[in-house]
Write a structure and sequence with these properties.
2 domains, 25 strands, Neuraminidase
């Protein structure tokens, strides 16, 4: 593309240029490096032009709040961005949703992650240890104990060198982000060391560019904590713990507290069905900026699919329907909720002979069994895990939702 000179740029105001750019597909606007991918992509991706490389003025315009706000207002009624359910531990994409969204992606997010890891790290040394709802993943390389924060679609990647502490003592808890208007302003990588009487967090902050050690004393007693699937949401990390009575609690810790809440950073919330018989191992998911909890609970000898939302005052029951709507029997495991639609919850079952992906609409109490690769009339693609070799592992695993934001603004280095 021929670069415009300053005189040509001055023929239009910045607002007019921003309006023009905001009407163009977002991937060509955002990508500064064309990803190396195998296979044939859509014509749109074949014709990607890195507008941010045209000239400094275009780069400034594309990254400006005015252009971002204008774009988001234009696409506020669009369905959603791409997202996936990722199986923790084996990095398997259990379910993917992509297609005719704002980004026009023709591959799943799991595919972008795989190709990014293959390009960036030799011998597949890098593994994903945390996913977010803002397009960032946390990667850990065991050989040199370094971390990387990356967006696998835009290919932006930041290396974080290890702290001089003995890293083996710490558990990788995850990554938390500070956002404003869907733009990541900062992030923290959080490691945890649990001692008998206290807990230490080893925290890397993008604002300071350094590690710091913070010791906290929780005002309650645990006999065990589970860090297999911490969930990052709104600057907090949430994980499961058990009290001395062997009851399950949710621990929430705020790593970006406001000024008047610094002393109230930790919260413990008992699960709402502790006095009931439940079907699934307790785990949480996210939807529309809230932490959600799904389980099948026996109520008066009737199995009910219950969904709760975590509010400031505790768990709020938002849905309760009979599992009898699934006529073939409910031998599924929960994957999570649609991150953008609180009506839809997804389940999976499988064996060596086959597998099913089940979605339930909580509002109309109807279900649908999906094929392994299913396209809707508008081009969206819903796909489930592609092969039986991972099935046994998937049955015993936790799942994280990985979501691409509507605006791929660069995150802090």
């Amino acid at each position: 593309m021929e670069k415009p000179n300053d005189r040509e740029m001055d023929l239009l105001t910045e607002e007019q240029w921003a309006i023009m750019l905001s009407r163009l597909p977002p991937i060509p606007i955002q990508l500064t490096k064309r990803p190396k991918i195998s296979g044939t992509e859509s014509l749109l991706e074949d014709l990607i032009i890195a507008f941010k490389l045209v000239c400094k003025k275009w780069k400034s315009l594309v990254e400006s709040p005015f252009c971002r706000d204008l774009y988001l207002s234009m696409y506020q009624n669009s369905y959603c961005s791409s997202w996936s359910f990722m199986c923790r531990g084996c990095e398997t994409e259990t379910m993917a949703h992509y297609g005719s969204d704002n980004w026009c992606l023709t591959r799943s997010l799991g595919s972008y992650i795989s190709s990014f890891l293959a390009e960036k790290f030799e011998n597949r040394e890098g593994r994903v240890v945390a996913y977010t709802d803002v397009g960032l993943i946390l990667i850990y390389v065991v050989t040199n104990q370094s971390f990387y924060v990356a967006n696998p679609v835009s290919r932006q990647c930041v290396e974080i060198l290890p702290h001089n502490h003995v890293m083996e003592r710490f558990w990788i808890l995850g990554i938390v982000t500070r956002t404003e208007d869907e733009v990541v302003l900062g992030y923290k990588v959080v490691l945890l060391e649990k001692k008998k009487n206290f807990t230490s967090f080893l925290i890397y902050s993008s604002e300071t560019g350094s590690w710091s050690l913070e010791t906290v004393s929780f005002p309650f007693t645990f006999i065990a904590q589970e860090f297999n699937n911490p969930i990052s949401l709104n600057g907090k990390l949430h994980w499961l713990a058990h009290n001395p009575e062997y009851k399950d609690f949710l621990v929430s810790f705020d790593f970006y507290p406001s000024g008047d809440k610094g002393s109230d950073r930790c919260r413990v919330t008992p699960f709402p069905d502790l006095d009931k018989t439940t079907k699934f191992t307790r785990a949480c998911t996210t939807c529309q900026g809230f932490l959600m909890y799904i389980n099948i609970v026996s109520v008066a000898e009737v199995d009910k699919l219950c969904v709760w939302r975590l509010k400031s005052e505790g768990w709020q029951l938002v849905s309760e329907i009979s599992t009898d709507i699934v006529t073939a029997g409910f031998d599924y495991i929960p994957l999570g909720m649609n991150p953008f639609d609180d009506k839809l919850v997804y389940f999976w079952r499988g064996n060596m002979e086959g597998q099913d992906l089940l979605s339930i609409n909580l509002h109309i109490e109807e279900f649908m069994v999906h094929e392994e690769l299913e396209r809707s009339s508008d081009g969206r693609v819903l796909s489930s895990v592609g092969g039986p070799r991972e099935i046994d592992y998937i049955k015993e695993s936790y799942y994280s939702s990985f979501v691409l934001p509507r605006w791929l603004h660069p995150f802090p280095n």
